[in-house]
Amino acid sequence: MTPGKAYLTTDEIRPLAARSDLRGAWLVLHCWGTIALALALFGLWPNPLTFLLAVMVIGSRQLGLAILMHEAAHNALFQRQRLNDAVGTWLCARPILADLGAYRRYHLTHHRFTQSDKDPDLPLSSKFPTSHASMRRKFTRDLTGQTGVKQLVGQIVMSLRMAGDHEAIEAAEGDFAQSFQTLHFWITVPVFLGVMLIMGLVGDWWWGLAFWLLPYLTWFQFVLRVRNIAEHGATEQSDDPFRNVRTTLAGPLARLFVAPYWVNYHLEHHMIMHVPCYNLPKLHKLLLGKGYDTQMNMAPTYGAALREAGWRSA
Description:
mainly alpha, two-stranded parallel sheet, Fatty acid desaturase family protein, transmembrane helix, transmembrane
C-alpha cells in the first residue's frame, strides 16, 4: 500500500495526483531553456564569473533532467504513457547518459523497500552519519571531476566487457550499479555527444566540452551527492515513512543551484510517489495542516541536512 493512504484520504490524494501534459512540457522546456540562457549569459559577457555560473547552472539542470527522468519513471511527467516515455527517454535520460527503463526498474525497487536490507540505495545512505573529513574528501573528488571521470571510465570499460555477453547483460538487469550505468551506455552516448555538438555549433568549438562535459563531470556529481545525502543520509533504517526519508526546505538559490523542480520534498514524494513534482508543495502543506509536522523528518536548509549527516563533526 502507498504509505500516504494511511494518513490521507482518497479525495485528498486524487487532485494532487492529477497529471498535466502542459505542465510536463513546460518543465522540460524550462530545463533546456535555462541551459540555453546560461550559455547566452556567457556568450554575451564572456568572463570567468559567467563561465563559472554557466557551469554551475547547467550542472544543476543536468540534475534537473535526472529529476524529470525520475518523474517519467513514475509516469508523472505526462498523462499519455507513450509521450511520457518518449520525452523521458530522449530529452531527459539519454542526454545525461541514463536509461529510463533501467532506472525505472531500479527506482521502484527503492520505493518498495525504502531503507531496508533490500533497498538498492541502502549502500549510499548507510554510510551516514560520517565524519567531516570524509564528506570533504567526497565533495573534493566531485568538484574536481575525479568522481565523474572514474564513473565515466567505469561505464566505458564495463560496457566493452558486456558487449555481446548475453549472460552478463541478463545478470546486470537486476543490478542498479550495472544496469543504470553501463547496460545502455552506448545507446545514450550519441545523444550526449549530440548535445555537445549543438553547443559547439552555437558557440565556439570548445563549448560542448566546457558547458556539457565539464558540468557533467563536476557540479552535476556534486549536487547529485548532496541531494542523495539530504534525502536518506542519517535517516532511520525503518519502515516509518516520516523518519526513513527527509524533506529539505529550499530557498531560491538552493532551487537554482542544488534542488530544481521541487526535488527537496522527498518525504512527500515517498508518501505518494505518483504525485507530480509540482504538486509536492501542496502535499507538504496538507501534511503540515493535518498536524504531522512533529513527526516529519525535515531540515530547514541543505546545510542543515549535511550537518545532520556529519558535516559539522570533527
